[in-house]
Design brief:
It contains 23 helices and 13 strands. Helix 12 links the parallel strand 6 and strand 7. Helix 8 runs antiparallel to helix 9 and helix 10 packs parallel to helix 12. It starts with a helix and ends in a 5-residue tail after the last helix. The model has no long low-confidence stretch (mean pLDDT 95).
Length: 540
């Protein structure tokens, strides 16, 4: 395939879609499927067929549309009219949408979301631009929305060095948690000596309540693959691996299908887009170990070894998979690559803050009216996320804290609601951006219980290789359990602090080094609750 053929296929698909008067987009991501989305899609198809509307109405299975707690979600797109999004659609409601809205032109108000709903209106979609609009299992649909144009542009108009420099100027930082500058990492791998190099996408998302990567892989798999192929060209790699959690079967299936479709069209494999660039991608399935989100443990798992971290240096950029230079980025990071390649570094750098550029995807969960998947510009305040996009706290209760960064993050109390959500601001508060989990808690939440929950998670997920993490997390959990059941003493609180320091400073990998964060942040901001448990045997 060449550039002309690429555009021909895209234009043909656009014309095919424009021939329909109406498109019914039915969310087929995991949250909506789990609440009956497949039955809703079938009901829509049956209603269209029964009304003899197949020539003018088409039913699409798409990826995540965002308001996951309101699923199944269906969007009605009609030429020349604004989209109408329906929530909590049942098969009966689906048939009503066809007979009343599609045929009679009367929206079903009982299920329609407000057109100006802040949850949707205040987002800024870059990585998720296609999610909820395209069928993730049809390559042609991705091409019709500009897919693989960035790869074509890069292969024929940019050098690997120029591409890496463009990423440096964009200010893109890794979206997996640490926030390491992406362009700098790519340059390290590009300059590393080696006859063989690898590109890895980390889709092993294990934080409780987080599903940003899963949604992207399910909703727009070709965007991840295109970003990986661009990375392969930039660093001189010809082989890529997508590492997907075993609990994400739909994501793995759609990635596999997308890879085969791209190979058939010459967008992956040999001599991609009539160039000299060769790049193959394979999917590797993890076994659900949280520690395999750490890059060295992930590489061990890909190579068929036990998923445990190994000491660094050497770093993956010098010696990764099978001892060869390896580039590892989170799947959301790869999702940002094609837009940057097409629109330029200055465009991306204009979004966000001085040191945190672009947008970030969050899985908004917990005690908030609107839960789901959101993409917002870096620097948006926590208050805007909770009260504007999230719709506030249910039942008129007060906001108490936001937990960001999963087991590696911390709890941010109400006095910091106006803090910008970016790498530097969250770090200053004792938390981290993480991969994008954000759990909202109301005034009824016990922060000691929160710390105990995350410590139990870390103790269970410790690989056991190093003593500080293997033993320290268990001992910390035991102390927290004593505090919550009212049998702890003031001495236990001092021991807990000491254990936090030891585990943080002496553990081998990021799991142990960051495991104390939820404890430390709750000790810092909610010490009164710890003291109440210990001194008065009472949970406030």
């Amino acid at each position: 395939m060449n550039s002309i053929e690429l555009e021909t296929i895209a234009q043909r698909e656009r014309e095919r879609q424009q021939a329909f008067r109406c498109r019914l987009l039915c969310c087929a991501s995991t949250p909506c499927l789990s609440s009956g989305g497949a039955a809703v899609q079938s009901a829509l198809q049956e209603a269209v067929k029964a009304g003899d509307l197949n020539a003018e109405v088409t039913v699409y299975a798409t990826g995540c549309m965002g308001p996951c707690s309101r699923g199944p979600v269906v969007t009605v797109q009609e030429q020349g009219k604004p989209d109408v999004i329906y929530e909590q659609v049942t098969p009966e409601a689906a048939r009503e949408i066809v007979t009343k809205h599609v045929v009679a032109g009367q929206p079903v108000q009982s299920h329609a979301l407000p057109a100006d709903m802040p949850f949707l209106a205040k987002q800024h979609k870059v990585v998720l631009a296609n999610s909820g609009l395209i069928d993730p299992e049809r390559l042609e649909d991705y091409l019709a929305h500009g897919g693989y144009k960035a790869l074509d542009h890069v292969l024929h108009n940019m050098t690997p060095e120029g591409l890496c420099d463009e990423l440096v100027r964009s200010g893109l930082r890794g979206r997996g948690g640490a926030g390491y500058p992406t362009g700098l990492k790519w340059n390290l791998v590009r300059k590393a000596a080696g006859d063989k190099k690898y590109v890895v996408a980390n889709g092993d998302e294990g934080d409780p309540g987080a599903y940003m990567d899963r949604a992207l892989m399910e909703s727009d798999p070709h965007r991840v693959l295109e970003g990986m192929a661009i990375a392969g060209y930039a660093v001189g790699a010809d082989q890529g691996f997508v590492y997907v959690r075993g609990e994400y079967p739909i994501a793995a299936q759609r990635l596999e299908k997308a890879i085969r479709a791209a190979e058939r069209r010459g967008l992956l494999g040999s001599r991609i887009l009539d160039s000299n660039f060769n790049f193959r991608i394979d999917v590797r399935i993890g076994a659900g170990a949280f520690v395999c989100g750490e890059e060295t443990a992930l590489m061990q798992s890909i190579m068929g070894r036990r998923g445990q971290p190994v000491p660094r240096p050497p770093y993956p950029a010098q010696s990764g998979l099978w001892g060869k230079p390896t580039l590892i980025n989170n799947v959301e990071t790869y999702g940002s690559i094609a837009p940057i390649a097409l629109n330029g570094a200055d465009w991306f750098a204009a979004i966000g803050t001085e040191k945190s550029k672009g947008t970030k995807i969050f899985a908004l969960a917990g005690k908030v009216e609107n839960t789901g998947l959101i993409e917002v510009p870096m620097g948006i305040t926590l208050r805007e996320i909770v009260y504007d996009i999230g719709g506030g706290i249910p039942d008129g209760l007060a906001f108490k804290a936001a937990q960001t960064g999963g087991p590696s993050g911390g709890c941010i109390p109400a006095q910091f609601l106006d803090t910008p959500v970016d790498y530097e601001s969250l770090k200053a508060l004792g938390s981290i951006m993480g991969s994008g989990g954000m759990i909202i808690m109301d005034e009824r939440s016990c922060m000691v219980d929160v710390a105990k929950y995350f410590m139990e998670f870390c103790a269970d997920e410790s690989c056991g290789k190093c003593v500080p993490c293997r033993v320290g997390t268990v001992q910390m959990h035991r102390i927290l359990a004593r505090i919550t059941d009212g049998s702890a003493t003031a001495a236990d609180l001092h021991t807990l602090r000491d254990l936090c320091d030891v585990v943080r400073d002496t553990s081998m990998c990021g799991l142990g080094q960051s495991a104390p964060n939820p404890v430390l942040s709750t000790l810092h901001y909610f010490m009164d609750e710890y003291e109440a448990h210990i001194h008065t045997r009472h949970c406030p």
